[in-house]
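Long-time lurker. I teach an intro course on protein structure, and each term I like to show students one example going from raw sequence to a predicted 3D structure in token notation. This year I'd like something fresh instead of my usual example. Would anyone be willing to generate the tokens for the chain below so I can use it in lecture? Attribution to the forum is fine with me.
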Amino acid sequence: MSDILRLSLALNSPAITSALRLLVLSNGHGEDVIAVRILQELQQLPNAPDIFALPIVGEGHAYQQLNIPLIGSVRTMPSGGFIYMDGRQLVRDVRGGLLQLTRSQIKAVRTWVNLQKKSGHKSAILAVGDIVPLLFAWASGANYAFIGTAKSEYYVRDEVGLLQRKSKASRWESFSGSVYHPWERWLMSRPHCKAIFPRDSLTTEILKKWSIPAFDLGNPMMDGLEPSFPQGRFYRGDAEQQEIIRPLIVTLLPGSRPPEAYGNWEQIMVAVSSVMESYSKPGLLSHTGSIVFLGAIASSLDLNILRQSLHSLGWYLCSESPVQISDKNALTFKSKNAYTILTQQAYNDCLHLGDLAIAMAGTATEQFIGLGKPAIAIPGNGPQYNPGFAEAQSRLLGSSLILVEQAAQVGQVVRSLFNDPDKLQAMADNGFRRMGKPGAARRIAECLQNRLG
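-- Reply from a regular --
Happy to contribute to a lecture. Here you go:
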């Protein structure tokens, strides 16, 4: 089906009735998910707009749950969207048809806007991600808003000032006084740009110096993370005793992109062994119970591969489980006094139950830290979670993310970390500050309706 025919069928659907028609542009799976969270809230508001989408990267499966029509060509590129971390990935994408796809997508956006004008409908664009969808939005000629998920001032500074960096090339990141470069700020300050939603308060504060319509409404990444159990359930009358005897719970976050995530899992298993060894020695925090590793496994991964990895390391399948999660199909393994639970359906529970995380993931690591918890990261071989990405993520998340060079070092880090309550509290405060409070999607949706509608 051609882009023009796809547009015509979508725009002439009898279900389309509202005054505003909104086109959402996003460039990555994570960006799609963030967009959908906001769109869900937008659809619940009075006089909600009719919504269309164009995922610039990937096939936009997240939009299907809301039955949002796509207006143009979509395709999964070889890099999976991680071209910024490896120049070789960009070359692969170009050979895979990236330039032709981009041209057709720009044409689809302009055609969509022109069709709205001809039919007398008011239209606007919501760009989610980085400069690519922002540039598409500006080039369309329509009013637009931008949700900046890719950049944060925390990459280059904290509340005190600029971070000390070893590389001279790193000065380029904030050469003009912001992590957002002058051409990006120019796109944000155009008359057609009605609202900018940065990912944190610090970035909002910096952007406002250039009279950019930036709104500090929080980060939608922290929405929709409620666990299946009542929060605070450990805090009963005998809370202190319960805290001593309950297991230490470590959440495992290997990422979601195969085959990279399988390599990450092997690294994480080395870290698990080091934690078990360290935990067996006296003096590790106040826990006297067992230790539980909660594997938050993406649906895109083959559980059998991870299961075989555990078996090869001496873990055996068992029926008992020391913690309850909302997944009846979860697999529980045991080795000595430790348990490993693999689940593909209880992601939120894994985040909330974990005392800390061993992480080799992007969004999941940020969400875990946003709940006020520490994470230990091991740089992998990429294309996503490579040393460059891990180092940048450590700047974004500050003290809450501890980078180790070797997986075998994790046990000692855990031992040191949980013997320092003041540091744990500081890490919790840091995580809350950098990732923000839940409810951002609703707040952004209401602002969008006011600014674009």
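Some talking points for your students: The chain has a mean pLDDT of 88. The chain is about 40% helix and 15% strand.
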